[in-house]
Amino acid sequence: MTDLDVRNALHRLATEAGPPRGHDTADAAIGVARRQRRVRAAWAGGAIAVALLAGAVPAVLPDAGPAAGQAATDRTAQAAPGLFDVPTRGSLAGDEAFVAGVAALEWSAPVGLNGAELRPPADSRHVLFAGDLPGGRRWALVMGADGGQRVVAWFGGPAGAAPGELTLLAQPQRGSLAQPVVLLDASGAGTLLVVVGLPGDTARYSPGTVRFDDVTVGRVWTDLPGTDGVLVAEVDRPVYVGAEMVEVVRDGDVVTTARGVPRTETSDEAEQ
After folding, report:
1. 268: pLDDT confidence band, cut at 50, 70 and 90?
2. Is 246 within a domain?
3. pLDDT tens-digit readout, 208-255
4. Cα–Cα distance between 213 and 30 in angstroms, integer?
5. How large is the average pLDDT for residues 43-56?
6. Other beta carbons less than 10 A from residue 45's beta carbon
7. Has residue 68 been placed in a domain?
8. What interhelical angle do 3-17 and 25-60 show, nearest 10?
9. Residue 15 lies in a domain
10. Is residue 133 located within the same domain as residue 52?
């Protein structure tokens, strides 16, 4: 019904009912009709918008209910532990005074941006490993954070050494929450290799390439013994510096293949 139809109908009613009182009833009725049409249009538009939103919810919400199993898998991946989440390991892990003393040792690593030294504050440090090792060695591995970067430092001394008697075994280096930390010491009578990873990690070592009887060249690998992600063994000395390799496996996948394993500074001195 148009405004004209409403006006004509009301005019007929007004004629039959007599003169209107007050305002022009036809004009008022037309205004009401217009407002009603606007309200109906608004409700129709709102209904369309609601329908569109209802259909769009799964697409626009970041977590609109993934398929069964997917959410659990994603949460598991996000919650994967890092080295900082694992308690201190090693034969001295239960010696709280020793572990606290190692964590308090001052050290820095000149591997920051533009050559700036990284100095992880004491409250950012975690002792990953502390224990006595073959060959009369006592080692500790510390990880800290500075400027959003993880750095690791190995300390060592003779068996029975107190924290203050330990010295840096090698220059501190950048670290990672997920990557195992490896150090080789060839300074003693036996070459010692230590790998500190996550619980469940396994590792193997090769001192270099060899020529087999069939004239092919390859590597002989030795599985490293250990538990709880700490693998320790006296191994064959590398064929030459940088020839050695360590391979770390986690959950069936190779996570580290390092050729030219990090070495103690005394190793370099012993081999010169």
Report:
1. low
2. yes
3. 998 888 889 899 999 999 999 999 999 999 999 999 999 999 999 999
4. 106
5. 37
6. 10
7. no
8. 140
9. yes
10. no
